[in-house]
Automatic annotation (TrEMBL):
All residue ranges annotated as the Glutamyl/glutaminyl-tRNA synthetase class Ib catalytic domain in the record: 6-261
Protein family membership: Belongs to the class-I aminoacyl-tRNA synthetase family. GluQ subfamily.
Keyword field: Aminoacyl-tRNA synthetase, ATP-binding, Ligase, Metal-binding, Nucleotide-binding, Protein biosynthesis, Zinc
Motif ('HIGH' region): 9-19
Statement: the UniProt record of this protein carries the keyword DNA-binding: no
Binding locations of Zn(2+): 98, 100, 112, 116
Residues binding L-glutamate, per UniProt: 6-10, 42, 170, 188
Full protein name: Glutamyl-Q tRNA(Asp) synthetase
Entries under PANTHER family matching the protein: GLUTAMATE--TRNA LIGASE, GLUTAMYL-Q TRNA(ASP) SYNTHETASE
Coiled-coil region(s): none
Co-factor requirement: Zn(2+)
Species of the source: Vibrio variabilis
Length: 296
């Protein structure tokens, strides 16, 4: 089977160092196996999006010479696929409406206890839609980290597939898209280890074979928190890509010759594809990156 990987950024802001690590790791893993590397813009949640971020992200990928295969896919254009599956599950009784508020769930210990499962609520207004959990996943195999464990209460929960505000849930969209796009392996940041259990459950409930998973170390800021758009992590530079590119490659465990700086960005990327080995990738889940001196 030929390898198909992907990079799936949410357009909540420009790419930062952490998302560059995810883009590079997924690219090297795909291209070192002569695979395809797809890009999917996960624009499922308009209130959290930044206008113009999607095109900015694509421009950044181009500036870093990360060229994707095929057309870019936008989740905002794929609502029919998600809705169709939800309706199928509602009809078969596998999904149901739930009126519990976050506050009520918090008051009963933080995990949803199945309160609405047998109520057969049928007015969609002001309700979320949940999926009956028939295939809980308590652990899975990661390509780098080996066996990873999912907390039982989380794995057992009937999770939300469509939110009360009408937005589709991330886990559902990701799995339906990964299946539809023929993805064979998901490479992404270690912040997504926990949702992986639910995603594997979805594959089982859809009667499909799950993909394999590789979670990359998470880049932490000086404050010890994950670098993220929500934390206002600085955007990486599009006009002068080499410093961030080399820092991100060092973060991924590459030992690079001193004179690599003399190469062009696309030559550095090619060097990365040829020299990518999973063994060199650090085994830690979280790392505070060391940035080289960025002054010219
Ligand atoms: N869209 C998610 C993010 O930007 C990544 C989803 C995934 O790789 O599965 O964090």
């Amino acid at each position: 089977m030929s390898y198909i990987g992907r990079f799936a950024p949410s357009p909540s802001g420009p790419l930062h160092f952490g998302s560059l690590v995810a883009a590079l790791g997924s690219y090297f893993q795909a291209k070192s196996q002569q695979g395809q590397w797809l890009v999917r813009i996960e624009d499922l949640d308009p209130p959290r999006e930044m206008p113009g971020a999607a095109s900015l992200i694509l421009e950044t990928l181009e500036a870093y010479q990360l060229h994707w295969d095929g057309e870019v896919v936008y989740q905002s254009q794929r609502h029919d696929l998600y809705q169709h599956q939800i309706e199928h599950w509602l009809q078969s009784g596998q999904a149901y409406y739930c009126q519990c508020t976050r506050k009520q769930i918090k008051a009963t210990g933080g995990f949803y206890q199945g309160t609405c499962r047998d109520l057969t609520l049928n007015q969609p207004d002001n309700c979320a839609i949940r999926l009956k959990m028939t295939h809980p996943i308590y652990q899975f195999e990661d390509e780098k980290h080996g066996q990873l464990t999912i907390p039982t209460a989380l794995a057992d929960e009937d999770f939300i597939i469509k939110r009360r505000d009408g937005l589709f849930a991330y886990n559902l969209a990701v799995v339906l898209d990964d299946i539809d796009q023929g993805i064979t392996e998901v490479v992404r940041g270690a912040d997504l280890i926990e949702p992986t259990g639910r995603q594997i459950s979805l594959y089982h409930m859809l009667g499909k074979a799950p993909v394999s998973y590789l979670h990359l170390p998470l880049a932490l800021g000086d404050n010890g928190q994950k670098l993220s758009k929500q934390n206002h992590a600085p955007a990486i530079d599009n006009r002068n890509p080499k410093p961030a590119l080399l820092d991100a490659m060092r973060f991924l465990g590459f030992e690079m010759p001193q004179d690599i700086k003399q190469l062009s960005v696309s030559e550095i990327i090619d060097w990365g594809v040829k020299n990518w080995h999973l063994q060199q990738l650090p085994a830690s889940i979280e790392i505070t990156p060391r940035f080289s001196n960025r002054s010219p």
